[in-house]
Design goal:
Layout: E1 16-17, E2 37-38, E3 70-88, E4 94-96, H1 104-107, E5 114-116, E6 121-136, E7 142-152, H2 165-169, E8 173-185, E9 189-195, H3 199-204, H4 222-226, H5 242-245, E10 248-253, E11 260-267, E12 310-311, E13 320-334, E14 337-350, E15 352-353, H6 361-367, H7 370-373, E16 387-397, E17 400-410, E18 425-436, E19 439-450, E20 462-476, E21 479-492, E22 501-515
Parallel strand pairs: 12-15
Antiparallel strand pairs: 1-2, 3-6, 3-22, 4-5, 6-7, 7-8, 8-9, 9-10, 10-11, 11-13, 13-14, 14-16, 16-17, 17-18, 18-19, 19-20, 20-21, 21-22
């Protein structure tokens, strides 16, 4: 969701202060903390990446370009409110058996069990904050930093005792999603370091993956993310995806030469911030991505440690190490047609599983593989490193943009590692949009075949499909409304009595965003 770059960001350098007169203190200056800071509305979506920090040469855009000896400070945010209706597998099908006569439910008269049911309509909202500074030294060196802060959500505090709105909101928190520094020169390139986008995210920019609505469309979009029961396919193509940008990395982009620029990135592992020394719990999960996040304390190597290179945990082997990528991009206009094309190759190592062997009772219990091992399953706790290619193409003429994206190789879903013996991933996306004045209308579809459940390596693989379309209207600078429809499904055959997935969802969404 919300993956638009070159964001509209109001700058303090362009701001003026409104005059104010107070009879009791006529000489007092206006206070910028009391609503006297006046600036033009944001010209576009707010974002951490902007026209000063996204490639070697600074570009004209919504964020003012610094001049020698100055820094442009920007403090921005957004608020999104959405309403949707969503219908999905499992909405009406969860049966709870009869409670025990000696339980509280039984004593209350609940003797026959019953079904759970999900309400299809909902209203959601979220807020985000963006801080940054773009500076230029007197010798022409450009440098700066950016921070993106998001709102975290939690489920009901206690489903048996509380369902009040206050209980929900008191569990919301703020967390850092991006945090990076950069240094740049038009003649030698740009270096970005920290928790930020890699080559795929920077090169794609949401263009060849058709993220044309403020919801983000197929990339973890707000309607997509509302689905449960695993009915949302992973966003295979990685541009502006959390598993691509949220680990700490080093990225270099060259200056443009005849429309081409080249890039390199490196990350030692999938941790971020100072997570390598965290004491919070959490382990990787190859089904949802590369296990980005905190883990157990790493003073002593322990299962779940973010910088673990070997461990006995059932998922320790699914950690990517030494993630490295190289790529090339072309941006230009030929015969009046705007062209964006890029290709990226990414590889990594992996942590080793050192637990009991799968041919032992302890190993089968540790890996949860007993059910499928008996019917030929190959999962043994070991994984392959990443080895994938990704590329996109978008052609724009007279307001129309058409194009697509492909990814394939040794990857499982969204940057997850493939278990030994598991299937390669191949995924394709196609899209089209038309922009005229304040209106944008478009459609995008994806399909991917990938391993999915690692326990089913060598037996079955997963398929995910989705189609999304919508229309968006720019009401005023910084304010947009949109309507969206999405259908998606996920399927994987089971084996050994486990692993079958066959879920679907579809829904409509109406949204409003204000960027400031």
């Amino acid at each position: 969701m919300r993956k638009y770059l070159l964001a509209g960001v109001a700058t303090l350098g362009a701001a003026g202060f409104a005059g104010a007169a107070f009879a009791q203190a006529p000489a007092a200056p206006p206070s910028p903390t009391e609503g006297t800071l006046v600036t033009a509305p944001s010209g576009g979506p707010s974002y951490a990446n902007n026209n000063n920090n996204y490639q070697a040469a600074q570009l004209p855009g919504p964020v003012a370009n610094p001049t020698p000896g100055t820094i442009v400070i920007h403090i921005n945010g957004k608020v999104v409110v959405e309403g949707w209706g969503l219908w999905q597998t499992g909405d009406n099908g969860t049966f709870h058996g009869a409670p025990s006569p000696t339980s509280l439910a039984g004593l209350a008269g609940g003797s026959g069990g019953g079904f759970s049911k999900v309400q299809p309509q909902a209203i959601g909202s979220f807020a985000r904050l963006y801080f940054g500074g773009d500076a230029m030294a007197t010798n022409g060196l450009r440098y700066g930093a950016a921070i993106e802060i998001r709102e975290n959500f939690s489920g009901q505090p206690d489903s048996n005792t509380s369902s009040g709105a206050s209980g929900y909101s008191s569990l919301e928190t703020l967390y850092v999603r991006r945090a990076f520094v950069y240094a740049a020169g038009a003649n030698w390139g740009i270096i970005r370091a920290g928790q930020a986008d890699g080559l795929i995210g920077i090169f794609d920019n949401g263009v060849t993956t058709f993220q044309f609505l403020n919801s983000g469309n197929l990339n973890g979009g707000d309607l997509e993310g509302a689905a449960n029961n695993g009915s949302a396919p992973p966003f295979f193509f990685l541009g502006q995806a959390g598993n691509e940008y949220a680990n700490t990395k080093f990225v270099y982009l060259s200056p443009q030469i005849a429309g081409f620029d080249f890039g390199f990135q490196y990350a030692p592992n999938t941790s971020n911030g100072e997570g390598i020394n965290s004491t919070a719990g959490g382990v990787t999960n190859s089904l949802v991505g590369a296990g980005i996040g905190t883990g157990l304390a790493c003073g002593t190597a322990t299962t779940g440690c973010p910088s673990l290179s070997a461990g006995p945990g059932s998922q320790d082997g699914s950690r990517a190490l030494n993630q490295t990528a190289v790529g090339v991009r072309y941006q230009g206009v030929l015969g009046g047609v705007g062209i964006l094309a890029y290709g990226v190759w990414m590889v990594s190592g992996h942590a080793d599983y050192t637990g009991p062997g799968v041919n032992t009772a302890a190993g089968l219990a540790n890996l949860g593989a007993a059910g499928v091992r008996a019917v030929g399953g190959q999962f043994n706790g070991q994984y392959d490193g990443l080895n994938l290619g990704s590329g996109g193409l978008a052609l724009t003429y007279a307001g129309f943009t058409v194009g697509g994206n492909v990814i394939g190789g040794r990857v499982n879903g969204q940057l997850g590692l493939v278990p030994k013996g598991g299937a390669h991933e191949t995924a394709e996306l196609v899209g089209a949009k038309y922009v005229t004045g304040p209106w944008t209308i478009g459609i995008v579809a994806e399909r991917g075949d990938y391993q999915g459940n690692p326990l089913l390596a060598g037996l079955t693989q997963r398929r995910g499909r989705a189609i999304d379309g919508g229309v968006q209207y720019q009401v005023a600078p910084g304010m947009a409304v949109w309507a969206e429809y999405m259908y998606q499904d996920v399927w994987q055959g089971g084996a050994g009595g486990q692993g079958t997935v066959n879920v679907k969802s579809q829904g409509f969404l109406l949204g409003d965003v204000v960027n400031f």
